[in-house]
């Protein structure tokens, strides 16, 4: 009899495993059905691994199981099952620490909401709300009415409407105003945003005919003037959110396009993308066009996102002329693109914060993060360095460093903001070395595998944890506490 067949015979039964304390804990946390299924699957895998013999691609824990009868006992099998249940029960959509230095990171959910917005969204989820109900008259109301007044007040526009996101806003505008007609756009503004949002494709889906004017680097007022004809539906200005054309360039600002559009009776639409509601210069950032400026410049409709610089939930906002907004609201597509009650509640609460710009940095995380000074962040990095170094253990060097953050989500694409963070280097990687990529990517993977994943960025031979968006020191120390104890090597949990 081989060692393996001996082990096979001694393998506990499902019932034996279920009688252990660990299995009882698993049943309490995850239910009997799931626990029994996982215990059975675990036992099956051990059996298969033992039959296949060593080195046959067995799962990591089964090597342990094969190591001796002790570790293949009922308690250790129950513990393995419990770990698997816990891993499977972890939500896929779960909080991470965004230490990438990109404040509005599209892949990490963009804007972090203000407490007021979180509370409003939670209240809207918990009970009935006056969503499309006019509390004064007791009659049916419009869901947009909740933010219409605020948006008018904050942008100076005649009217406003809200949809699912800015891509939806652009689609709705094009479909309403330019279906079966020409939409005139500069060749320098035919953008592609991440996630396959390409202006020419959106135009086609909206039923508008794209009429390109000018060249990639230079477009003049006369290019627009010559393109306007009886079939023109609108002129579209698009904020070149994620790139800059530099050198020998010319573009026509909305302010100069507006008189031409008005004279020829063609609506001018300005897709701002991020579209800030306040002048970011007051926080020391490079200027980004504000929505109020675009409205004042004479755009008939202005579209922008709710979860970029505005710092609210995902939403697409359209402000502008009353008659055009009314047409958008009558388009049946509006119903398909509408915003839900949870985000509408959060959006209203976010917009309300803009009534008091002096306290915005205190209350709105996006603005607070963008406004943080490098010295403040560097002090935080120095304060945190010892605890973070302790969590990593002696094989890893941790150093407070200066770095550069980005705004992200297509706001000020080429500008960076001076920031600071922690440079984490496995000792095997010398400073400034290029070759340590593998070690660094393993380290980055280990941080992503934590129960609260920590997302940094690899730069200059180090994993840099930019602390601009870290509100709470304890959150990072707590997340890193789950790192494998220094000295042991463990595969990152899957
Ligand atoms: C980001 C962006 C969009 C898309 O906005 P979403 O809110 O992501 O749908 C459209 N146009 C421009 C110019 C943008 O920057």
SSE arrangement:
Blueprint: H1 3-10, H2 14-18, H3 21-30, H4 32-52, H5 60-67, H6 74-89, E1 97-98, H7 115-126, H8 145-155, E2 159-163, H9 166-178, E3 182-186, E4 192-193, E5 197-198, H10 199-206, E6 209-213, H11 221-227, E7 232-238, H12 254-264, E8 268-273, H13 291-296, E9 301-305, E10 316-320, H14 322-330, H15 332-336, H16 341-353, H17 360-363, H18 365-371, H19 374-392, E11 396-408, E12 411-426, H20 437-448, E13 454-455, E14 457-459, E15 462-466, H21 473-480
Helix pairs in contact: 3-4, 3-6, 4-5, 4-6, 7-16, 8-16, 9-10, 19-21
Question: Your description of this structure?
Answer:
By secondary structure, this protein is α/β, with parallel strands linked by helices. The chain has three domains: 3-89, no CATH class; 97-105 and 369-480, Aspartate Aminotransferase, domain 1 (Alpha-Beta Complex); 115-360, Type I PLP-dependent aspartate aminotransferase-like (Major domain) (Aspartate Aminotransferase, domain 2, 3-Layer(aba) Sandwich). The chain contains 21 helices and 15 strands. It has helices at residues 3-10, 14-18, 21-30, 32-52, 60-67, 74-89, 115-126, 145-155, 166-178, 199-206, 221-227, 254-264, 291-296, 322-330, 332-336, 341-353, 360-363, 365-371, 374-392, 437-448, 473-480, and strands at residues 97-98, 159-163, 182-186, 192-193, 197-198, 209-213, 232-238, 268-273, 301-305, 316-320, 396-408, 411-426, 454-455, 457-459, 462-466. Helix 3 packs across helix 4 (32-52), helix 7 runs antiparallel to helix 16 (341-353) and helix 9 packs across helix 10. The chain is elongated and about 90 Å long. The protein starts with a helix and ends in a 14-residue tail after the last helix. Keywords: Cytoplasm, Protein biosynthesis, Pyridoxal phosphate, Selenium, Transferase.
């Amino acid at each position: 009899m081989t060692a393996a067949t001996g082990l096979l015979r001694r393998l506990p039964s499902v019932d034996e495993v279920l009688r252990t304390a660990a299995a009882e804990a698993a049943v309490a946390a995850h239910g009997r059905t799931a626990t029994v299924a996982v215990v059975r699957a675990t036992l099956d895998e051990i059996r298969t691994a033992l039959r296949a013999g060593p080195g046959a691609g067995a799962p990591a824990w089964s090597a342990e199981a094969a190591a001796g009868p002790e570790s293949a006992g009922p308690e250790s099998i129950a513990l393995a099952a419990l770990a698997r249940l816990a891993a499977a029960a972890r939500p896929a959509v779960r909080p991470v620490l965004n230490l990438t230095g990109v404040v509005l990171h599209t892949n990490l959910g963009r804007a972090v909401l203000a407490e007021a917005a979180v509370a409003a969204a939670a209240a809207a989820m918990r009970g009935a709300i006056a969503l499309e109900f006019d509390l004064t008259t007791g009659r049916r109301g419009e869901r947009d009415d909740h933010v219409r007044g605020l948006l008018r007040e904050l942008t100076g526009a005649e009217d406003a409407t809200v949809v699912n996101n800015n891509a939806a806003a652009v689609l709705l505008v094009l479909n309403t105003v330019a279906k079966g007609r020409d939409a005139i756009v500069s060749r320098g503004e035919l953008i592609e945003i991440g996630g396959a949002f390409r202006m020419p494709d959106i135009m086609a889906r909206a039923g508008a005919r794209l009429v390109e004017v000018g060249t990639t680097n230079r477009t003049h007022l006369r290019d627009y003037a010559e393109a306007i004809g009886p079939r023109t539906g609108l002129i579209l200005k698009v904020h070149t959110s994620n790139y800059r054309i530099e050198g020998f360039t010319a573009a026509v600002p909305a302010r100069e396009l507006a008189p031409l559009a008005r004279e020829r009776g063609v609506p001018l639409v300005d897709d701002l993308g991020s579209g800030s509601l306040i002048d970011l210069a007051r926080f020391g950032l490079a200027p980004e066009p504000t929505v109020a400026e675009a409205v004042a410049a004479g755009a008939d409709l202005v579209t922008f996102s709710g979860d970029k610089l505005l710092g609210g939930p995902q939403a697409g906002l359209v402000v502008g002329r009353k008659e055009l907004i009314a047409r958008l609201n009558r388009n049946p597509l509006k119903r398909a693109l509408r915003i839900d009650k949870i985000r509408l509640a959060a959006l209203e609460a976010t917009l309300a914060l803009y009534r008091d710009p002096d306290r915005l940095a205190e209350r709105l995380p996006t603005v607070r993060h963008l406004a943080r000074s490098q010295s403040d962040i560097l002090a935080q990095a120095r304060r945190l360095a010892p605890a973070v170094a302790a969590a990593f253990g002696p094989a890893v060097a941790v150093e407070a460093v200066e770095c550069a953050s980005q705004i992200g989500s297509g706001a000020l694409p080429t500008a960076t903001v001076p920031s600071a963070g922690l440079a984490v280097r496995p000792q095997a990687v010398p400073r400034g070395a290029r070759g340590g990529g593998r070690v660094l990517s393993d380290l980055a993977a280990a941080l992503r595998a934590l129960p609260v994943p920590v997302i940094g960025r690899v730069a200059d031979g180090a994993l840099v944890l930019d602390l601009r968006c870290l509100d709470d020191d304890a959150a990072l120390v707590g997340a890193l506490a789950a790192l494998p104890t220094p000295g042991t090597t463990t595969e990152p949990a899957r």
